Each structure stands twice: as structure tokens, then as C-alpha cells.
Amino acid sequence: MAVAVLVAVLHRTDRPVVAAWCGGVFGTVWLVGGTGWMFVSLHRFGGLPAWMAGLAVLVLCMALSGFMALAACMWVRWRRGNPWSDGLLWAALWLLAEWARGFVFTGFPWAASGYALVDSPLAALAPWVGVYAMGAVLVWLVSWLVLAVSSPRGLFSCVVVLIGTMAGLTLMPANGGNFTRPHGGSLSVTLLQGNIPQGEKFSQAHLGAQLVWHAQALAAARTDLVVAPETAIPLLPSQLPEGFWDQLARVFHDGHRAALVGIPLGDFETGYSNSVVGLSAATHALPDGFYRYNKHHLVPFGEFIPLGFHWFVQMMNMPLGDFTRGPRNAPSFAVKDQFVAPTICYEDLFGEELAERFVSATQPAPTLFANVSNLAWFGDTVAIHQHLQIARMRSLEFQRPTIRATNTGATVVIDHHAKVVASLTPNTRGALVSSVQGYEGNTPFAQWAGRLDLWPEVLLAVGMVLGLRRRSGMTAPSL
């Protein structure tokens, strides 16, 4: 409905500058509504005054909406007055605007429009084209209908296209087709949710209690794999109590169970990383005694400081705020006959980066994802539910199950068709015990995005824009 209103408004103006304002306002409201929880981390936990935190969120959302403003401006300038071609033009520009927001300056693709379609018939497109093209298809359908009803014989055309679209979705195989198949046996898993308030996460008065709880919960698990959230252990190894790490590692080195534990690694002198450590009998023989995954895609301001913004970060109470970056194509963690691909919080927004792990010539493709997160930074907000929707989209794109161990939620098991099969209540402490079946085989999205990133879609959209735009020889409205 929101897209329909925007298209209707843009359709009524022939002034590109007015269209840019409309697109910018639309994008700003969209992003403030979708990412306003950043205010909680900046104000409540970062210590910024409320006015400054609110202004920072607004300015960021306005800046990111510049891509949508530019798209709206270009559409009004280049449209031809034909509902079919104008709808395709708007969809191509929309895709480019969303891709740019997820790419420029490391990207911030949260609340991309395609995530609204996880439970819709258009979800069948996910293993073929991914989240950005899904959003563009929806925008094309909506904009075409809005434009068609205002043209001669528009109602008849709308009925024809709706029938054709419904028939196409009906004929499409369920879930877009079954490109994957079960691999090996199922894993029994325990997913920990400590529910540590962010105000206590790095507090000296509460560190001992959370270390004890996570250590005891890890040791008590009797499943094949136990997973603890991002920074479940919030201290660097040199800061841990003497013997703590060796005692914890021994539990898994001497048995048949495995663990994935969120912990920062490194030191303040040489640099530190936001990491997941894997412990098992097999890792005992490794040089460090554990498998290590370092987060690759870091969050601006929260995990790395953009050039020129040290003054802003220094105003906030942000411990461990300048991590080093891990490799993009990281090996999986082997547990029995499964290959578990860790992701840490925000980086599971970037399906095109995860796709590289599925086409590597030197390491096995993942059979399931394991995401560890700590959304306590954002309080009891919609961010928890949004992140669950994002994780489900990755399961759709790759037809792989996902297990999530989070500090405050959503701690869940998601099957390879994005259905949540087990979950813990958010903002409670507990351990979710379930099982998960790994899958092998690649979806079309994994194949082409793993080799070419999103460039095929981007170049196709650019080609559509160049082909559908009004030619320069025709009269165009002026700014």
C-alpha cells in the first residue's frame, strides 16, 4: 500500500525535483520506522543526549534515503507514459536504490522491501533471485497496477495481468523448486539465550555471574552441538579468570560434543576481532586448540569507526568498538557429518557475501547456518523480529536451515524452507533443545551470486533503465 501511494503521488507530478523530495521523504519515514531502534543503543547504552541520538538517527536515515530520492527523480524525468514500461523502469530504479543502500560505504540494507515477502507467494523467487529482486518484482506489480488503472482500458489490463501473475505463481514449484537434499544425519542442538541486560553486559559487578551461567550451560548441554550467543564471553582471553578458558575447552576436547561460543579474540595492542570459537575433540589438535571464525562484515560506528568519525564514537560508552575484519569466505565448522557456517549478528544481512561459501573450490559448502547475535543493544524493539525475518530469508535463498543463539532473541531453529520449527520466548533466559537436518546442493542464487556477487542483477537493472528511459530527443520536463 505504501508503494502504491508513492507511485500515485509521483504519477501526478512532472517535476523531477518534486519527485526527489517525495522519494526522500518516503525513504526517510520508511527507514526511521524500520531502524528507529538505533536510538536505544545511542541514547540508553551509548550515553548520547536524547536530542543528539534522535538527530543522528534522522540524519542517517535521510542520507540513506538519498538513493530513493534519486530514483524517484530519474523515474519522473525518464518515464514514457506507458504503464508497462514505466512500471518496469520504476522497478529497476527501485532495485538499484536498495542495492546502493546495501553497498555504498559497506552498506546498511536493513528493512529492505523484499523481507516483507518471506511468507508471501513471491517467496518462491528467493532461491532464484534473492531479496532485492523479490522487492523489485513486488514494486513492479504494484506500480503497474497503479499506472494501468489511470490509462485507457486500464481495468481490463489489470485483470489480465493479475490473472497471469496468479497463474504463474501457481505453476511455479513450491518454495521455488527443491534444489537441495538432506546431507548426513540430523544434529541435536542446544541454543543458549542468556538474556543479559546490555547495561550489565560489560559491568564488572555482573561479569562473574554471566561467565558462570554460560560456562555451566555449555558444560551441561548433552546435545551434539551447543551454541552460545555473540560475546557470550565478553572479555578478551587475557582478561578471563585464570584457568577459565582451559577448563571450558577441556569439556569439549575430551568428549563427543561440540560448541560454538561468541567471544572477542586478540588484544588491545595488536587488534581484536568479534569472533566465534569452535570447540570439539577434533579442534584439540589445532594450533590454538579451537576453530576460529572472525566476523567479516562489521557494523559502522558499533564495530568499526569510519574515517573522520572518531569524535562521535568517543562520545559514546562503546566497549570493544573498533574490531579487525575477518575473511569474507571463511571455512565452516565440522560437527559430525555437518558443516556449520557461523555468522555474527548483522552480517547475515548480506546473502551475496554468504554465497561465496557455497562455490569454494577449497572447502565444503555449508550444510546449515549458525547465527549468534546480541540485540540487547536495541532493547525490546522490533529489531528482534526483523532479524528473525532476515534469517528466514537467508534460509529461503540457500535452502539451508538456520540455528540462532541470541542474548535476548530470537533464539530459534529455522528449517530449509524458512519455517520456524522451535523457538524460545524473547527476553527470557533459557536453553532451546532441538534438532536440525543439514542440506547439500546449491540454489540458483547461491550459484550465480557466489561467483559474481549481485552484479548480474545490478547490470540487468542498469540495462533496463537505459533501454526504457525516455530518449533525449524527446521533450523532457525541466527541473
Account of the protein in words:
This protein has helices at about 1-10, 15-35, 40-45, 50-65, 65-80, 85-100, 125-150, 155-170, 200, 205-220, 245-255, 310-315, 350-355, 385-400, 445-450, 455-470, and strands spanning about 180, 185-195, 225, 260-265, 270-280, 290-295, 335, 340-345, 370-375, 400-405, 410-415, 420-425, 430-435, 440. It is α/β, with parallel strands linked by helices. The chain folds into two domains: about 1-180 and about 455-470, no CATH class; about 180-440, Nitrilase/N-carbamoyl-D-aminoacid amidohydrolase, CATH 3.60.110.10. The strands form three sheets. A six-stranded mixed sheet has the order 6-5-4-3-2-13. A six-stranded mixed sheet has the order 7-8-9-10-11-12, with helices on one face. A two-stranded antiparallel ribbon has the order 1-14. Strand 8 (about 340-345), helix 13 (about 350-355) and strand 9 form a beta-alpha-beta unit. Helix 2 (about 15-35) packs across helix 4. It is globular, with a radius of gyration of 24 Å. Residues about 470-479 have low confidence and may be disordered.
